[in-house]
Prior knowledge:
single chain, seven-stranded mixed sheet
Amino acid sequence: MRLLRTGTIDLLPLDESRPQKYAILSHTWGKDEVLFEDILNGHPENKPAYDKVKFACRRAAADGYSCIWIDNCCIDKGSSAELSEAINSMYAWYQEADVCYAYFADVDASPETDIKSEDFRNRLASSRWFKRGWTLQELIAPCRMIFFAKDWTVIGKKIDPEEEVDLRGVLSSITGIDEDIFKDPQRLHLASVAKRMSWAAGRETTRPEDLAYCLMGIFSVNMPMLYGEGGVKAFLRLQEEIMKQSDDQTLFAWTLDGTPDSINHGLLATSPSVFKNSRGIMPYEDYEPRAPFQMTNRGLSIELPLSRLDDNTWVAALDCPVPPAYPDYSFLAVYLQKLSVDSDQYARKRIGRLARRPFPRHIFQLRNAPSPEQYRIVHFVYDDSTPQPPRLTTSRIYAQQGSLPGPATFSIAKGAHQLTVAIILEYVPNGELLTVMLGSSVDFRVGYNAAALSDIKIDDQKQFESFYSYFQARAVESVGGIELENHDVKVKMDSKISGANKYYMVDVEVVAKVRTPKLLDLLVDSVSEEMGSREQVGRAKSSIWAKITTRTTKRL
């Protein structure tokens, strides 16, 4: 990688120190470009495109820069090592440049041209510069950027502090890139993988492999150049490099229009063009790390929550909420088909569309519980290996219980039919223990179950697994609740969206089926004066009731 001296239009010697500030040129290639060897041989003026180099150097010199970088004449493409280094570091060259000049060779303008007119902006949008792959990173990376028409008339700036001709809005409408990224390129990492891919969906490169190579800087990855491998292989390699650094599952949220449902495909795309409708897709940010996924000799190894549609069709939910335009807060998903009955390998089907599934995992928060005088929470059994999410201030259970034997919020396990927490309740009158279990059902809906603790075989060393083996989620919407021998249990929930989280606010209702018999009440009341205090009366009543009930209990 070399720099051109703007005064003499020759290459800065390799042994000469690189200046701290330099200009850089962004342009589209045409016929008879000035190449590295032309500059080296000292006869670049013989090329028709020399005027572009000359005017770029003249503008840079007028702006006070002694050097400029121009890709066509500053890279020795005869050296594969230098070419690979240049492509892998090109984003950094544009990022570190003090100013970038973007030259539109196909846009006519003059000092009299109304730059702000709709007609001119439509002509600007049709420029070849917005169709090329390499100019995408050249638009994003530099902080300072000046745009020039065919005759080097200034069109405007990417960001104009004086807001005379600030082109952020125009550039955003043409490219789909968020305006705040133009203002601060460091915000690029906040854009999802799918959104960044969508920016390249309509762009082209002369060599098919370059459509992948020109995106390396935008995703902060590096990989060797293998010209001749083909565009598909290069793009697959790019995605593999992205997966090494990111668990953003929007990488799989693409569609290929007009494709028959019967076509088998992998989860990875073959071109950025399939992301053209994926700009609004964002990853779900949660409090638990996702299971890592990677390429193996059997394909992509990844864990996704599955639900069956029919004998051989499944839906795999991605950690990608449906864009906010939809009111139901569902997740995007892909259709899969098992390659064989006994196989653990799947192929993607119906690649012309994405499915929508309910949220596969969010947060349970206990909000209301039975009166502690009747049912006291004595224990929570849950997988405590993951951090607990924050609770919303709308929880009322602390006021009811006074204190809890653990947290009030629990991350709902991802996947179908997964247990999240078992809440152990003590029926105060006789000490009987029962459990209310919360988790997800087979169709990814939130659900619950309940049981007398004596019905569950408890392994004290593996309490969570003990409850897990018993757990069979009932739908929250089911009528009537769960009937135990001595208690009726009902769980009600409603959801609240807070930032990137969806909370399921849980109300637990438990009612004892059999009350203390009237005869027992009359018996105890008749001798209450002889027995003394109210506390003694209560203990006597509980003792007699415990003898009447023959149910065995087991305490944790």
